[in-house]
Design goal:
With about 475 residues, this protein is an alpha+beta fold. About 30% of the residues lie in helices and about 25% in strands.
Length: about 475
């Protein structure tokens, strides 16, 4: 019998539900500790958004393998003991034994409900080491360094921008801040700065406030802006690039200005009238840049916000995961994403300057600005453990955003190709390393000696393909200096 037949509310394994059959402790025949596997799941739930570990149900097919009363009691005691011994700090959880009447004997499924911990990160003691785990779409993964930093920021530890500096607040050293506020029809008082934790009650500047000082010269505000002639960063040519550092508001303004200068902002004549011919909605650009600056991870020294302008799109990449969001790939429903504020002081100052409005509204505005365009022009977000990228399609590019990640994107070369399959091979090898056997199969041929010497070797010799590895492990990729995506 499957779990769904008795309890319809139990569905597929997810970020918040995991099934286990019979769990054990002790050592396996190979000397591995049997309890580590299920303890990882409990730790991951505590580190992420909480969840339920259902014991007595096979995870591969959801078949119930319920425990008798003696086994259930023994398992519950084992869970309590192992959690107490191996998980630190203490976590909040509950254990319930659910009756399952599959025969004459009453048996049990054990439900372990784990609450998200307020004291992060939660660690697992294993073989003398500390393991930190998180949940990602139905699986338990070891946390990356960036995710560990996010966990710390979500706990009671002090975020980067709220830490106190040794600088005493002087309004004359923040003229830019007050000037921008004045230009945007508002005024910032010292009382408000204290109430928003930008300066302490004894008038010391916080690290977030320091980034807004007129003479700030550090690299934490660094932005690198680049214009690329092709659809990817492949190749050695860029048509424009600039770097900005210093006062955060000045960096913000210069970044927005760079995008404006290097994109279309005009009109197009249609019959007897003119219509806007604009690459990116002004508000969407501002919201995108402000969001990247406001939510970046300022603990990650040596990094920068990156602005990359391609013929079909604008990419705004910020260091650090989008706090509260684990993984996204080209997510177009961006209005549903409400980023948590990693930098409350910085965001408060941007709010005072009218660059930010209520929490979570930025993505709403961007989606609204693109709402009249077709789906191929929908903005999207990609995020992982180290960065998040907002992509704004160029509304003047007729094809929308080109899928440069496709398995076989459309490519071209400037030289004359000899073989009828050459372009198809270069396309197939553009985004992924391929073996000769894979290439031959893709174009419907066999990986013969002739194919290797007359086709693959020829393309390598001409510099179209790059040979990687040696012996039987050779793989091939298109040389992006010579093979270009079609624009």
């Amino acid at each position: 019998m499957k779990i769904e037949e008795l309890f319809p509310n139990f569905g597929l394994e997810s970020k918040n539900i995991e099934y286990k059959g019979i769990i054990k402790e002790g050592k396996s025949d190979k000397g591995k500790k049997l309890e580590i596997g299920w303890l990882k799941t409990i730790v991951a739930f505590a580190n992420t958004d909480g969840g339920k570990l259902i014991i007595g149900v096979e995870d591969n097919n959801h078949t119930i393998v319920a425990l008798d009363k003696k086994e259930a009691d023994k398992t519950i005691l084992m869970i309590h003991r192992q959690v107490k011994e191996k998980i630190e700090p203490n976590i909040s959880y509950e254990i319930n034994a659910i009756e399952v009447n599959t025969s004459n004997e009453t048996r049990y499924i054990i439900e372990v409900t784990v609450n998200k911990s307020k004291n992060l990160p939660v660690t697992l003691h294993e073989e003398g080491l500390l393991g930190i785990y998180v949940r990602n779409y139905g699986r338990t993964d070891i946390a990356t360094p960036e995710q560990i930093k996010d966990l710390i920021l979500l706990s009671d530890n002090i975020p980067f921008d709220t830490a106190k500096t040794g600088i005493v607040y002087d309004e004359n050293e923040f003229k830019k801040l007050h000037l921008v506020a004045q230009e945007r029809k508002t005024k910032i008082s010292e009382k408000e700065l204290i109430s928003k934790n930008c300066i302490t009650e004894d008038r010391y500047v916080t690290k977030g406030m320091e980034l807004f000082a007129d003479d700030y010269s550090g690299l934490r505000t660094k932005v690198v802006a680049t214009v690329w002639p092709g659809l990817t960063k492949g190749g050695s040519i860029v048509t424009a690039t600039e770097e900005y550092t210093g006062n955060l508001l000045s960096v913000l303004e210069r970044t927005i200005d760079f995008i404006r200068v290097h994109s279309a902002n005009g009109f197009r004549k249609i019959s007897t009238q003119t219509v806007p011919y604009v690459s990116y909605p002004v508000r969407a650009v501002t919201e995108g840049v402000v969001n990247a600056i406001g939510h970046r991870n300022y603990y990650m020294s040596g990094t920068q916000v990156e602005i990359n302008i391609f013929p079909d799109r604008l990419e705004i990449t910020s260091p650090g995961a989008l706090l509260g969001v684990r993984e996204l790939y080209k997510e177009k429903n961006i209005a549903s994403i409400i980023p948590r504020r990693r930098n409350e002081v910085i965001c408060n100052l941007l709010e005072m300057c009218k660059y930010m409005e209520k929490k979570g509204s930025g993505f709403d505005f961007i989606e609204e600005d693109y709402s009249k365009a077709s789906d191929e022009f929908a903005p999207f977000i990609t995020t992982d453990s180290s960065s998040f990228t907002l992509t704004l399609p160029d509304l003047t590019y007729e094809r929308g955003v080109v899928d440069s990640d496709a398995d076989s994107p459309e490519v071209y070369v400037l030289e004359v190709l000899e073989g009828k399959n050459d372009l198809q091979i270069l396309s197939y090898c553009y985004n992924n390393k391929r073996t000769v056997k894979e290439i031959a199969s893709e174009i419907g041929l066999t990986a013969s000696t002739y194919f290797r010497s007359k086709v693959i070797a020829r393309l390598v010799k001409k510099g179209m393909l790059i040979e990687l590895g040696d012996g039987n492990n050779k793989q091939y990729m298109a040389n992006k200096e010579k093979v270009k995506l079609k624009i």
